[in-house]
Amino acid sequence: xxxxxxxxxxxxxxxxxxxxxxxxxxxxxxxxxxxxxxxxxxxxxxxxxxxxxxxxxxxxxxxxxxxxxxxxxxxxxxxxxxxxxxxxxxxxxxxxxxxxxxxxxxxxxxxxxxxxxxxxxxxxxxxxxxxxxxxxxxxxxxxxxxxxxxxxxxxxxxxxxxxxxxxxxxxxxxxxxxxxxxxxxxxxxxxxxxxxxxxxxxxxxxxxxxxxxxxxxxxxxxxxxxxxxxxxxxxxxxxxxxxxxxxxxxxxxxxxxxxxxxxxxxxxxxxxxxxxxxxxxxxxxxxxxxxxxxxxxxxxxxxxxxxxxxxxxxxxxxxxxxxxxxxxxxxxxxxxxxxxxxxxxxxxxxx
Length: 351
Ligand code: F6P
Hints:
Layout: E1 3-8, H1 16-29, E2 33-37, H2 41-45, E3 55-58, H3 85-97, E4 102-107, H4 109-120, E5 125-129, H5 145-166, E6 169-174, H6 181-190, E7 194-196, H7 204-216, E8 222-227, H8 238-244, H9 257-268, E9 272-276, H10 288-306, E10 312-317, E11 320-325, H11 337-347
Parallel strand pairs: 1-2, 1-4, 4-5, 5-10, 6-8, 6-9, 7-8
Antiparallel strand pairs: 2-3, 10-11
Helix pairs in contact: 1-10, 5-6, 6-11, 7-9
């Protein structure tokens, strides 16, 4: 292969820049030229007024000084149209017109679906896992997860200080979509009293009881880490809660952390506040672990393409680099029940 393309797609993740840098420099070192597509699959569809807005020729200098930067220099987007075969075919035609023989697609689940489609249409494509959600079970970690985790941990440390001072319980909502890893690892690292995650059924009222027991046992503050996707594993229905707590006004189809805090406060009799960490978790300079993971997997993706291998997703298991069929990598769950149990044990609130 003499010429490849690279893009970042889906939600940005800290470390995407480090992955782009590794892809470009490994390719150049192996005698390949590289095209960088902008705004994920949108760039491949080339619908901007100027091609400079869709793609750029990458060189060693275009990736200088970016390894430590959050976001992605190629920009990113979610491109729902790319689920449709006619758009996928157009992208392959456009890539061929630029003499591109292979692609590296950096992102999460949605990105990998697009990558699988490009590959099945005859354009060898490798997926590099980058999402703060860590929701790809084939790899131990995805690029960006470690940074988001450290950001969340730092935020919870601060919330713990003020909670301790005011003797409050705190509900802290973290991202993760349908995956509880970010909440679970944050809870473990912060010594939280509970992780409320989509993978495990939970009850708001039991949470309130737990906070009450914590206060009785002498805890000054408590941290309950709430995964944004955990509403779906709540035992009580929203209608039930609205009937039982008339002051509560639930709109939409999920419980929000403020509403959760209201119920926990009412059941426990203990002041409870909510904080949503939101996009603070997506930004920021990547940790050393994320930079190294991005550099290793980005370089490995190019190594596979240089051997004319496509249709794989790269990742890590233990300290080893791995690659698996890209169609398989969206299966399975990353949930680790031992880690979940450990939050309960070390949070230590006796039944
Ligand atoms: O996939 C990363 C992520 O940050 C999820 O944790 C979150 O649910 C989602 O993206 C938010 O996406 P958007 O920024 O497009 O609203």
